[in-house]
Amino acid sequence: MNQKSWTIKTLLEVTTDYLKKKAIDSPRFTAEILLAHQLDIDRVKLYLDFDRPLNDREVSGYRSLITRRLSREPIQYITGVQEFWSMEFAVDPKVLIPRPESELLVEQVVCLHKEKQSPDGLSTRILDLGTGSGVLAIAFARELEDAYIWASDISQEAIDRAILNSRRHGVEDRIHFFWGDLFQPIMDRDFTFDVIISNPPYIASEDFDSLPPEIRDHEPRVALDGRKEGMFFIEKIIREGSDYLNPGGWLLLEMDPGQITKALKLIEKSNGYGEKKCVKDYSHRYRVVMVQKC
């Protein structure tokens, strides 16, 4: 990047080749996202202004962003945003980056809500365990206008970020955020729910060091590490979840496809559960386990 005069077009071309040589995934996409972020414009605007000359400050700032990406810092932490459920959320290294697979949880809960027949007229009560940046709870609040939503996380910093995101999307009055480990914040509150959902930490501790550096070195380990075989929190939620579900209520858990069989065996050994089913992700691999309380 030593050329004296840069346009958007030439800078993108050179950067894309450079990132490709450095084995950075999606080099063109990365180059465009970071340049659009530096210039504070939409990616489409890059193509509309292909021949726009860039000043030294813009080029220097862009170099800094590219350097951060070369250190394998995720794009989402560099730009500070990630899209989920067609909404933009603020993210930082204190919270897990939302994955597209987690939208399955939203889809399933929306379906359950539509199918629910409540003769007493009560609204659906939803608990989001390990809310992180709050994407699931906020998506529920946007999709289900008559639902009551609670969300907990062991990280106070994550709760703070989730609250900011809820304000960003105008649903802060619809969600009750609690700090604490899984069910701990509501243990003495005599709360029960129609739906409990969680995308808990499920990476096996023994596999953590082999993760891509974007994940291993930058995302919060507390949101990823599921201890031995990645099953610690999955097992705990299955074991304790029925105590907080209303009769006929559903527990939904996201996990690694390789953990599905173990989770189903744990459910069979647990008391209080009846119907269960598994949901495939967009790669046609089972990703979500759903189980209903008797």
Outline the structure in words:
With 294 residues, the chain is α/β, with parallel strands linked by helices. The protein folds into 2 domains: 6-71, Ubiquitin-associated (UBA) domain (Helicase, Ruva Protein, domain 3, Orthogonal Bundle); 98-293, Vaccinia Virus protein VP39 (Rossmann fold). It is 38% helix and 20% strand. The protein contains 11 helices and 11 strands. β5 (125-129), α7 and β6 form a beta-alpha-beta unit. The longest helix is centred in the N-terminal third of the chain and has 15 residues, at 56-70. The termini are far apart.
* Largest sheet features: 7 strands, mixed
What does the average pLDDT come to? Answer: 94
Ends apart, CA distance between termini? 64 Å
CATH architecture of the largest domain: 3-Layer(aba) Sandwich
CATH class of the largest domain: Alpha Beta
Helix content: 25-40%
The structural class is: alpha/beta
User: Strand portion, in percent?
Assistant: 15-25%
By CATH, the topology of the largest domain is Rossmann fold
Q: How many structurally independent domains?
A: 2
Order of helices and strands: EHHHEHHEEHEHEHEEHHEHEE
The strands making up the biggest β-sheet line up spatially as: 7-6-5-8-9-11-10
Oligomer: single chain
Shape: elongated
